[in-house]
């Protein structure tokens, strides 16, 4: 008779790890999707359509902000607004803080492209590493914080 041995990557172990780190794992997953929306929109407007890279970047930031708000609210932080006022406040804070990171994104792109001579697509990808970290901190501490 063969004895079943639970492997290091058994389903129960994976489920336990997921449940223990669900918010971070979900943030990473939806952060990757948001980053893909951001970079994809940038590539479309900058490289495919030939729009100025700063305008393309602004459009991609707006698309990513809208995508991220709904996915972060519903799937990552599982935030439920109790009133319309609370929902508007969460949206206002989210957009406001994401615009702060968006300004950093725009400045980084400008510096990397115009002053350092880097390509627009590479600059966009490099900038996203810092943006994702900033956005997680903003979302966790200020926007979708849980009431104790």
From TrEMBL:
The chain crosses the membrane at residues 21-45, 51-70, 91-113, 125-144. Keywords: Membrane, Transmembrane, Transmembrane helix. Belongs to the GtrA family. It comes from the Bacteria. It is found in: Membrane. The keyword Transmembrane applies. This is GtrA family protein. PANTHER family: CELL WALL TEICHOIC ACID GLYCOSYLATION PROTEIN GTCA, PROPHAGE BACTOPRENOL-LINKED GLUCOSE TRANSLOCASE HOMOLOG. It is a multi-pass membrane protein. Residues 27-144 form the GtrA/DPMS transmembrane domain.
């Amino acid at each position: 008779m063969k004895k079943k041995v639970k492997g290091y990557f058994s389903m129960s172990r994976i489920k336990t790890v997921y449940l223990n780190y669900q918010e971070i794992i979900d943030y990473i997953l939806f952060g990757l999707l948001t980053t893909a929306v951001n970079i994809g929109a940038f590539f479309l407007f900058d490289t495919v359509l030939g729009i100025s890279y700063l305008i393309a970047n602004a459009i991609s930031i707006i698309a990513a902000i809208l995508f991220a708000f709904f996915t972060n609210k519903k799937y990552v932080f599982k935030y439920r607004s109790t009133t319309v006022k609370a929902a508007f406040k969460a949206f206002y804070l989210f957009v406001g803080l994401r615009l702060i990171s968006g300004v950093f994104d725009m400045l980084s792109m400008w510096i990397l492209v115009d002053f350092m001579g880097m390509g627009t697509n590479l600059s966009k990808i490099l900038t996203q590493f810092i943006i994702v970290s900033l956005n997680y901190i903003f979302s966790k501490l200020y926007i979708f914080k849980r009431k104790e």
